[in-house]
Design goal:
Blueprint (H helix, E strand, L loop, with lengths): L3 E5 L4 H13 L3 E5 L5 H7 L9 E4 L2 E4 L1 H11 L10 H32 L17 H7 L1 H10 L4 H23 L10 H13 L6 H4 L3 H9 L13 H15 L1
Parallel strand pairs: 1-2
Antiparallel strand pairs: 1-3, 3-4
Length: 254
């Protein structure tokens, strides 16, 4: 079997999802981490049609996007499958996967860049395990333009982050329900597990949010699927923004 090449960004949760899928499939791969912001031009220069990561070269194909890559991997390497054979279970997994890709993924990205902008030196913690040729100390002191650029590109405004944090309790309840019914967190991980676990693991790199998520069923499931995830952001978000999540967590702790 040919070796895959994955183009990624340090800390990228969709790219982390693809790494987990490649490992699950037993596909050998090498990773090239690109510089944030500069990656858009780099990916196009490599011949991919879009400007986003994850981008994968495998079996003579150029693939982009975690969901597209998941479908392609099942087509090229059918076993083990990323989707259940049972039709009803498959529909539930694809519904959860779609939520993870279309809603949760970007909301987490917006929350992250807003928090990192408030704690800029924390960006260096996402380089753990990266092959980007940039020392952590240099990253911490020269990352201002990158942080601001990602903040702007991802529209990580205070308003958007407040709205995302207000929606997060309901999203977590939905994810916990999927764990309860076996759609997520089963003995054998599926495409939705890989899609969602990395978003949960990324948002748990924020010290503001970690204690409010990690003991929930989805937090525990995410840690099983993705036990290691680089990044650590000290408290950064205003207390009033976190109130909906803390209020939701209080009854469970009572």
């Amino acid at each position: 079997m040919s070796k895959a090449t994955l183009y990624s960004l340090p800390g990228s949760h969709p790219a982390a999802s693809v790494k987990l899928m490649l490992d699950f499939k037993g596909i050998e791969y090498r990773t090239f981490d690109l510089m944030p912001l500069m990656h858009k031009a780099a990916v196009r220069a490599l011949g991919f049609p879009g400007t986003t990561v994850p981008a994968v070269r495998f079996a003579g194909e150029k693939l982009q996007g975690s969901v597209e890559i998941a479908r392609a991997l099942d087509r090229i390497v059918p076993e083990p499958p990323l989707l259940p054979a049972d039709e009803e279970a498959r529909k539930k997994v694809m519904m959860a996967e779609a939520f993870g890709e279309a809603e949760l993924q970007h909301a987490v990205r917006q929350i992250l860049w807003n928090a990192v902008r408030r704690q800029p030196r924390s960006i260096a913690t996402y380089l753990e395990g990266s092959n980007l040729p940039l020392p952590k100390s240099v990253a911490a002191y020269t990352s201002g333009p990158i942080i601001y650029g990602e903040y702007k590109i991802n529209d990580s405004t205070d308003k958007n982050v407040i709205n995302n944090l207000a929606a997060l309790p309901g999203w977590l309840d939905r994810l916990d329900a999927w764990v309860a019914d076996g759609t997520l967190g089963g003995d054998t991980p599926n495409a939705a597990d890989f899609q969602i676990a990395t978003s949960i693991r990324l948002v748990m790199t924020l010290q503001d949010l970690r204690p409010l998520i990690e003991d929930r069923p989805i937090g525990q499931a995410a840690k099983r699927v993705a036990p290691d995830y680089a990044g650590d952001v000290p408290p950064a978000l205003p207390a009033e923004w976190l109130a909906p999540l803390r209020e939701a967590a209080a009854p469970a702790a009572a």
